Amino acid sequence: MGKKTEDKQQQNSEYGEPTQYDPTFNGPIHNRSCTDIICCVLFMLVLVGYMVVGILAWLYGDPRHVLYPRNSTGMYCGLPPNQDKPNVFYFNILKCATATNIMAAALQGLQCPTTQICVRSCPSSFWSLDLAAYTASSSDLKIYFKQELCVPSFNLSSTTLSATEIINRELCPFFYTPTSSVLGRCLPTLGPVYNSVPSNFSLPGMSSNQTVNMIKDATG
């Protein structure tokens, strides 16, 4: 008898006190219904809205906008006629980093406000235009600029423009830093690469250290 009482007490301590019979309890509700009709209707409307957006995106959307980057003329990099150039290169990456005006970025379609071209591979070193190019004749500019990074329709061999005019019109870049391809976009490579910057890498009016610090602040 004492053992049964002890076992019952141990069972109660493990599972709690047993529920007492209540003759007034009417049992679980058999026919249940929604208790908040308004929230249920709003939830259904949201689901329908998502379905409509999905259908419109499927019918009228273009997945290439997500899968492939585009250059300044709207052509896709990695697709004909740029199938051998899968990456987009930004002439002045500092304009992308310092474009903090949300409204201006929205009006430009969230695009970086600098010339963009399709390239085979992203630059992996530091380069800046030699100061001698600013006083060189037009016929000699092909020695200083890099034709493969200029706007495809622009030819350095036949130009009559000066170096300053080329830069102002963004026909060719006047500097670049080490970049890596991220989703087809040449973005600055950060970290140890800035510990070994060439002494001749500088932007007009700045020393090499000032140039590197400005780029670090803008992109890091």
From TrEMBL:
GO terms for molecular function: antiporter activity; thiamine pyrophosphate transmembrane transporter activity. It catalyses: choline(out) + n H(+)(in) = choline(in) + n H(+)(out); thiamine diphosphate(out) = thiamine diphosphate(in). The keyword Methyltransferase does not apply. It is a multi-pass membrane protein. Residues 1-22 are annotated as: Disordered. The chain crosses the membrane at residues 37-60. Its main location: membrane. One of its GO terms (cellular component) is apical plasma membrane. Keywords: Antiport, Cell membrane, Glycoprotein, Membrane, Transmembrane, Transmembrane helix, Transport. It is found in: Apical cell membrane; Membrane. One of its GO terms (biological process) is choline transport. Belongs to the CTL (choline transporter-like) family. This is Choline transporter-like protein 4. It comes from Pangasianodon hypophthalmus.
